[in-house]
Design a protein that fits this description.
disordered N terminus; 246 residues; mainly beta
């Protein structure tokens, strides 16, 4: 997928850019609260029990790798290290917000599609590199608990945490005889984030920065040089979401 390669070659510090973006939004929110005569938007929207929306996201993801005991055996004398590279991906989803109280709600994400690319490099002592590239489209439903600050004019800060599943679409989770790195079809993730809600006249906009950590070992139990040196692979990602809701 050429798009991923172009973004990766830019070599941007994506996480720092995202954090600075949220900090800038927060500063603007506080500046807005100091203005007199601000028109409050969508006051009745906060009283609705159920609200709908959608999200767009861009994420930076990588794999957490744990070596196995076999990595220190003669089988791996020619491999100096195994390293996971950071890659860029995209997300699109639909959400339902269920109001519990003014500051507490539950966000249900019945459908979210994530486009992922994972690269694991096997670096040999002679300087050569074997890059195992895994591309996948994943369906990722989730349930999250959300705590919001008191509304300040047309702004609210919030914290969010929850759990999500990840199911690879397409081919079944079966083993092959190919000498390559294989990843399981299923995964589960714990997610934590912070965001800022901005009320406009006809909709509500909320940028959000979220970290997700996979809690399952996603490596298939194959018997080849790409698997035997590894004990576990866990997923990690930082995502900037843009939410649009009622």
């Amino acid at each position: 997928m050429q798009t991923f390669d172009i973004w990766y070659k830019l070599n941007l510090h994506r996480t720092k850019v995202i954090v600075l973006f949220l900090l800038f939004s927060f500063v603007q929110a506080h500046a807005q609260t100091r203005k007199a005569g601000v028109t409050l938007h969508r006051i009745k929207s906060d009283q609705k029990t159920i609200k709908y929306g959608f999200m767009l996201g861009v994420h930076s993801n990588y794999n957490g790798i744990k070596y196995s005991d076999r990595f220190d055996t003669p089988e791996y004398d020619q491999i100096g290290s195994i390293i996971s590279k950071k890659n860029l991906g995209f997300d699109l989803g639909f959400m339902v917000n269920i109001r519990l109280a003014d500051q507490f709600s539950i966000r249900v994400v019945p459908v979210k599609i994530g486009l992922y690319q994972n690269t694991v490099e096997y670096r040999f002592i002679d300087g050569t590199v074997n890059a195992q590239l895994i591309e996948s489209t994943r369906i990722e439903p989730g349930v999250f608990f959300k705590y919001r600050s008191i509304r300040r004019n047309n702004f609210r800060m919030y914290l969010i945490a929850g759990i999500s599943g990840s199911i690879r679409s397409g081919k079944e989770d079966v083993l092959t005889n190919d000498d390559r790195l294989e990843i399981r079809k299923m995964n589960a993730k714990l997610e934590f984030g912070i965001g800022l809600e901005r009320y406009f006249e006809f909709f509500k906009f909320a940028p959000e920065l979220r970290y997700a950590r996979g809690i399952m070992n996603v490596m298939n139990p194959q018997d080849n040089i790409f698997h035997n040196g590894l004990d576990r692979i866990n997923t990690h990602s930082f995502t900037l979401y843009l939410h649009f809701s009622d």
